[in-house]
Specification:
Blueprint: H1 11-23, E1 31-33, E2 38-40, H2 43-56, E3 59-66, E4 72-81, E5 87-95, H3 101-120, E6 148-152, E7 177-183, E8 189-195, H4 201-206, E9 210-212, E10 217-221
Antiparallel strand pairs: 1-2, 3-4, 4-5, 6-7, 7-8, 8-10, 9-10
Helix pairs in contact: 2-3
Length: 225
């Protein structure tokens, strides 16, 4: 059966979506999957990146389940230009991890964030592949500093530093970048990178740092590999 995924014309929708995409920023991996010990961008984080931009440009976004093969979830993600009615959608079909309400809800959340990111062109900070098997969303690990440790100054380098040039804590020695330890509200110790981080972001990514768009700072857990 052939499925229609867009209206006959999408010219006006495309013009508006170009403006939307110009405002989108990479989404922060704000949650941790305890089963795989990997970080990922939660549905909340993905929605926060795109919700305001879509509404300000008159785009209605909706996601709803559709009937597909037994034991599978079907999810449609659809964007509609309110002024013209032009629309575009995507359909994802994925197997359920468990054929019960919990498995359905987990798969729904997983499908919603991946479908929305794909349709709008959203990328994650330090993007990598997550396990294809849906896992239940875990609680967000938001940075909320409550105490400050010692500042770790970066040593001067005459040449462009490489990631292999690290200190005792496994932190890259980068000109103009300083580190300090703080405690997050989940009880874990974080390392914050400050200073001239913009030109060093590739080194910071390699060292396991993540960008917090709200607080405008690079961070990672102190025990990160």
């Amino acid at each position: 059966m052939e499925i229609t995924l867009c209206s006959d014309k999408i010219t006006e929708l495309a013009k508006v979506m170009i403006q939307v995409q110009q405002t989108l920023t990479p989404v922060l991996k704000d949650s941790v999957n305890d089963l795989t010990n990997s970080s990922y961008a939660s549905l909340k984080s993905v929605m926060e990146v795109c919700r305001t931009a879509l509404l300000e440009h008159g785009i209605w976004m909706t996601q709803y389940a559709v009937s597909v093969e037994k034991g599978h979830l079907g999810l449609v993600t659809k964007i509609i230009h309110a002024a013209t009615g032009q629309w575009q959608s995507s359909l994802i079909e994925m197997p359920l991890p468990k054929n019960d309400p919990q498995g359905y809800g987990s798969a729904m959340t997983y499908a919603r964030r991946y479908s929305l990111s794909a349709l709008l062109g959203i990328i994650t900070e330090d993007d990598d592949a997550e396990s294809a098997t849906p896992k239940q969303e875990t609680q967000n690990h938001e940075i909320n500093p409550v105490k400050t440790g010692n500042k770790i100054p970066a040593k001067s380098q005459k040449q462009q530093p490489q990631y292999s040039d690290t200190g005792a804590d496994g932190l890259p020695k980068l000109d103009g970048v300083n580190y300090r330890k703080q405690a997050a509200n989940d009880g874990k110790t974080c390392i914050l990178a400050t200073g001239n981080t913009h030109s060093k972001k590739e080194f910071l990514k390699t060292a396991g740092f993540r960008w917090d768009g709200d607080k405008k700072i690079w961070w990672r857990y102190a025990n990160a590999a």
